[in-house]
Amino acid sequence: MPVKIRLQRHGKKGKPFYWVVAADTRAKRDGKFLEKLGIYNPNTNPATIELDVDSSVKWLQNGAQPTETAKRLLSYKGALLKNHLAGGVRKGALTEEQAEEKFNAWVEEKASQVEAKKDGLTKAQQEARKEALAAEKAVNEARIAAAQPEEVAEEAAPEAEAAPAAEENNEEAK
């Protein structure tokens, strides 16, 4: 029975949410599966990926072929690296401890990269908020400035009309 590691779509229209599953290739996309390996939510930024790495490696070692997207997710979470290191252990190139040490170092580095991206996104959001606030203040000040000359002109108009009349009265009095 050929097995694929693939995504099974869930969620509502326009808001996809996926399960990463090991399924028979003949089964429907959202149909029967052998084992649920994790979840993938592309709606968040960065995307949320929860994956059972050990089960994924077990399926890869048993011959399951990942689809393109599933392969990217497995690579992102380190399942393909762990499978590669397990192959090195079987061949005698590494010991189990060395392979585990390399995998843990990679996971820590990846976690720091993800945290840096999250921090960058929060800083970018804060900067966007500050810029939007500054732009809004500028628009409000422009509105106020545009409204004040009209009021000043309205107040000055009666005085301007009264001033020529007063001058005419002064000239007639002379």
From TrEMBL:
- Transmembrane spans: none
Recorded GO molecular functions are:
structural constituent of ribosome
The protein's matches in Pfam families, at most eight in alphabetical order, are given as:
Ribosomal_S16
One Gene Ontology term, aspect cellular component: small ribosomal subunit
Annotated stretches, region: Disordered: 114-174
Report keywords, A-Z: Ribonucleoprotein, Ribosomal protein
Q: Name one GO biological process term.
A: translation
Q: Which domain of life is it from?
A: Bacteria
The record's section on InterPro entries has: Ribosomal_bS16, Ribosomal_bS16_dom_sf
Q: Where is the composition biased (Basic and acidic residues)?
A: 114-140
Q: Does the keyword Ribonucleoprotein belong to this entry?
A: yes
Family of this protein: Belongs to the bacterial ribosomal protein bS16 family.
Query: Which protein, by its recorded name, is this?
Result: Small ribosomal subunit protein bS16
The root-end lineage is: Bacteria, Pseudomonadati, Bacteroidota, Flavobacteriia, Flavobacteriales
